Amino acid sequence: MTLTSPGIGAPLVREARLRTYAMTPPVHFTVSYAINPWMDTSVPVDTDRALSQWHTLRAAYESLGHTVHLVDPAPGLPDMVYAANGGLSVGDTVVAASFAFPERAAEGDLYAEWFARNGFGTVHRTTGIQEGEGDFLVVGDRILAGTGFRTQRSAHDEVAAITGRAVITLDLVEPRFYHLDTALGVLDDATIAYYPAAFSERSRRLLDDLFPDALIATDADAEVLGLNLVSDGLNVVMTDRAPHLETLLHDAGFRPVTVDLSELLKGGGGVKCCTLELRRTRTMSDTLIP
Ligand code: ARG
Question: Where would you find the membrane-spanning parts of this chain (predicted)?
Fold first, then answer.
């Protein structure tokens, strides 16, 4: 698909790149504690429904040609379905998470072991608290990093040192948007969509400077976690509840692919939260065959 970019006049081509994801089935998903404003332990959760919605999401990735690796879910860790929080994978380096709340702490080791066992690169840990791709989003060569609710500022420096990438700190100020991936979605190596009200004044100015062509989400888009999306550069897998954002994406040359993840929204997560991108440059066989 070729579009004309109005500002520059050069043709703008949206291209899909095949991706590799890790996902954890919500076999043990429920809301038995509340660590973000979306979680309400008095609202019943239908685990079978969550599983069937999750299967639809997985099938959407596979039908787009992407590879999905499965992480084993563990009993007693209902939030493990939010695989994005398990770590950050950049090239042949993985940083496994160190969770903010004791309820999720055990997930850090499980994800670290999974990365190591499956050859997804050298696994690093941080001293500072950080929740993987919940707060670290890769945009081209840079990493945007959220802080304010979960990931500590000090972990941004650690991730910069481990990955060798520029890490750009963004301050989150709205409790409902407690992870960066709830307020900002990466569309391709240079394009993002975000919800300005979730960020401090300073961070808003920074985002505006860095991404003057960003798509700006409305309250209604953000309130259904519309920005918690996964893009391959062309196809954007997202909630079916954000029609305004869907139109913005479509008009910008992307192809929205919508799914219903309403049951998993009860835990405060959406499409992106359930999806960890693995960016290892080597192939699986490099690791498995000596
Ligand atoms: N209940 C989980 C928590 O509060 C939801 C995590 C959502 N994940 C994400 N990447 N935003 O930790």
Answer: none
Residue 134, helix vs strand vs coil: helix
Residue 245 CA to residue 230 CA, distance in Å, equals 13
Which of 212 and 5 is assigned the larger pLDDT?
212
- Phi and psi at residue 167, to the nearest 5°: -115, 125
Tally of CB atoms within 10 A around 213: 13
Asked if residue 135 has its Cβ within 6 Å of ligand 1, the reply is no
List the one residue out of 278, 176, 189, 279 whose CA is nearest residue 228: 176
Quick check: CB of 182 below 6 Å from ligand 1?
yes
177-218 residue pLDDT tens: 999 999 999 999 999 999 999 999 999 999 999 999 999 999
Q: Is the pTM of this model over 0.90?
A: yes
Distance 7 CA to ligand 1 centre (A): 37
What does the DSSP assignment read for 168-235? EEEEB--GGG-SGGGTEEE-SSS-EEE-GGGB-HHHHHHHHHH-TT-EE--HHHHHTTTT--EESSSE
Distance CA 50, CA 29 (A): 8
Q: Is 87 in the pocket of ligand 1 (CB under 6 A)?
A: no
Question: Could you list the active site residues?
Answer: 179, 273
- For the chain, what is the mean pLDDT? 94
Per DSSP bridges, beta strands 142-147 and 136-139 are: antiparallel
